[in-house]
Amino acid sequence: xxxxxxxxxxxxxxxxxxxxxxxxxxxxxxxxxxxxxxxxxxxxxxxxxxxxxxxxxxxxxxxxxxxxxxxxxxxxxxxxxxxxxxxxxxxxxxxxxxxxxxxxxxxxxxxxxxxxxxxxxxxxxxxxxxxxxxxxxxxxxxxxxxxxxxxxxxxxxxxxxxxxxxxxxxx
Length: 171
What we know:
Elements: H1 40-58, E1 65-68, E2 71-72, E3 78-79, H2 84-95, E4 98-103, E5 126-129, E6 142-145, H3 147-156
Parallel strand pairs: 1-4, 4-5
Antiparallel strand pairs: 2-3, 5-6
Helix pairs in contact: 1-2
């Protein structure tokens, strides 16, 4: 949808989105689910099936990563139904797509475990964090990643700007 600019491929929850290069998929949240699911298990299956449809529709070779939050922090702390993230991990493995987890709000013990994704029993390829790492006393953020991804970043360079870059207290 958003990557192509074609409004016909946009889902009902992304009509407002115009992020270049990003394609959204419907979340597995039960409070306003467009999926006709009667149980959490049915919801997990329907949402994961939808994600696979989006992957196939866009072409898996065109997707570098799936970026998601294990707990939707800004929309009410909603969690996915049991089994959803396990299936997402399987899809990422099957289609060779990186699973990128945003733990900026939920990381560093804010959910009980060190990271929200730990409750799902899934290991992401990349994990972003920020606020909780310093209890929000100083601006600091970071990225954890599998060693082979880190080696690619190290060897090829990664020239980007950073929100908290260069702050004397942070580093």
